[in-house]
TrEMBL record:
Molecular functions per Gene Ontology: GTPase activator activity
Amino acid composition bias (Polar residues), ranges on this chain: 1-11
Species the sequence originates in: Laccaria bicolor (strain S238N-H82 / ATCC MYA-4686)
Pfam family, one: RasGAP_C
Coiled coil start-end: 39-66
Residue ranges occupied by any Ras-GAP domain in the UniProt entry: 165-381
UniProt-recorded name of the protein: Predicted protein
PROSITE patterns, alphabetized: RAS_GTPASE_ACTIV_1, RAS_GTPASE_ACTIV_2
GO cellular component assignments: cell cortex
Gene Ontology BP term (one): negative regulation of Ras protein signal transduction
Top-rank taxon, per record: Eukaryota
Amino acid sequence: MAYPDTPTSPGGMSARRLTNRNTNRYSVTALFSMAAEQDVEVEDDLARAQKRLRDLKGKISAQSKKNFVLERDVRYLDSRIALLIQNRMALDEQREVERTLEEVDPTEGHYPDDRKIQQYSNLFFLLQSEPRHIAALCRLVSLSEIDTLLQTVMFTLYGNQYESREEHLLLTMFQSVLSAQFEMATEFGSLLRANTPVSRMMTTYTRRGPGQSYLKSVLAERINSLIEHKDLNLEINPVKVYEQMINQIEEESGSLPPNLPRGVAPEVAAENPDVQAIIAPRLTMLMEIANSFLVTIIESMESVPYGIRWICKQIRSLTRRKYPEATDYAICSLIGGFFFLRFINPAIVTPQAYMLVEGVPAKHPRRTLTLIAKMLQNLANKPSYAKEVYMMTLNPFVENNKARINQFLNNLCEVGDFYDTLEMDQYMALSKKDLMIHITMNELYNTHSLILQHIETLSPNDKQHLRILTDELGSAPPQVPRKENRTIELNLYSRWETPVQDIQSALMDSVSSSDMLYMETKSIFVQLIRSLPHAAEKRPYNLAAIAERAATTKDAVLVRKGIKVKEMLRELEEQKIVEESDGYKLMQEEVAAELVHLGNLREKVVLETKSLEAVYKTICDHNNYMRSQLEQYKAYLQNVRLTAVKDKGSTTGVGVVTVGGKEKKMTKAVVLGPYRFTHAQLEKEGIIVESNVPDNRRPNIYFNITSPTPGTFIIALHYKGREKAILEMDLKIDDLLEKQKDNKHLLDLEYVQLNVPKVLGLLKKVFAKR
């Protein structure tokens, strides 16, 4: 999205290009151009590239919403299945979990009637175009309600993430929320740090398409090059370094010397000269790596999404007003709290959740990434102490970069405002017949319900628009079952503002008729030169010849425009605005400049499309990953609830499994397997994350996986030629799901470490259908 402080008018040059024409027409040129574009019939490389980019942005916006909803489903199922694993869930709760996995059935349920839809159309136009209502609502709802509301606000009401009007309205809402947060703040230190609806809003905002795009382009390469070094151990916690050291000594010599006891205090470990010798070079390397991350982030400032920079600007501005005595360092620590704590660091610590890397990083790189994030956070916060004493040893990094990070955080705030543009965007919205959002029935009813709960605060006067609309709508319908939660297209209309039927006539209030004629003539010439083969190649442009050529082609549209523009040139001559004697020099220069701008624009559009294609792929990959998690939950719910065996103390092996809410009798379980997998197979599929098996022995290693009863598995590690397994491990799917829920992604099999989500995927693939 172009920054609002650098306007380029699609139909004209900036005001500085006004040579001998002293008019105010350029203040509304952008608005005119937006109107003119509504019926542009140009089909050249730029137009095609712009269409591809628009389509791609639409797909990213839609997919971001799907991902947000899926992430919430996965979080909910994580917590519910944990209860199920611990046998603390009643049968009706189990069925509720199953319903969470149901797909929407388009034949189920019913839509509101036409009158209700019209009322919702008016209500959601008001909510979208007057963000103060949503801003107030976000402050009033509870922490348990905020996620559902944020889904509607971030991905539905303002879901078109690359459309300037919706983005600017959303940022206006943020300003209102932040302003209230600063008003209510009792102490500087607690500002924006606690887990509140406001902090959740800020985090959710960074998860939209533009934020994800930035993280991918800036961090992915650096993180990937770091995690390639699986064995690079940069641990600096003296206790852990001491443990690793004595474990290695014991492994190599078979025993421990008496001067190296186990379980020593942190200060004893820190004073050990061998531990200090191990840590010293690691500190140097950590500071080098953290510095390389910092340099990359600082150099990427121009790529930071406008909205994120604008929020930083609001934090700085509000802090200066509320705390005039606050130092620059203190203000920058608040900005850094948002930029690093809520945006950058989560992606560094869990790059797999942001799809910046394939799979979960190995143990040592994972720890290194956590340390890097801590260092960047300490740099942004500039604390006088560190939570972990050993982090103080990295203070030189903080001291050396204080000034640099301050400069960066201040520079982040240097973006223009968008209020003028927003006024035009709002005006244009009234001329659009296709202002529309895609919204689910439950989003509709939930927003309606929340507004009613807080209507006395939101709209105390019964003459206010919000109160009138909610009074007419009446009580909010209850939430519908998941199967009936269909998505509808809700066209947005204003109840009180008249739609603009003829935008060019409406513009006449602010632009003289001669200025309007000049702009439209120029706009048509730009279209003609883009449409006529080879017309752009001949310089300088002979405008009269171009108009004549268009008027005599076989294309009816070009003929109409050619005749029209010839007549317009004649009128401009009569008004002494252009002259035929100098080849319409002023008009010709501005048309040429506009075409140069459009040519450069095409290159930018192509570059942006390439970048966003990578983002779209990442978002789709993340969607597939979360879907596979949901599939594992489905398999678990369908195959593993052998509840009656334990309850009845039965020895017959006949149990009951609940599938889709219906109980089915099962005969004694049949042993499935063994199924055989080579070390190379599991390594290739990313199931083996780390292996201690020497390279020359790996071809002789294989794994047998057996399922003696549903939900129970035995993984046996074998060496070719030996009858007995080297190692056997019993696994319950409950334990694997619990590990996954707790973000413990590694399963230790002594000789190898396995990726838990991928093991679950393998078990589902091999056993679910047998």
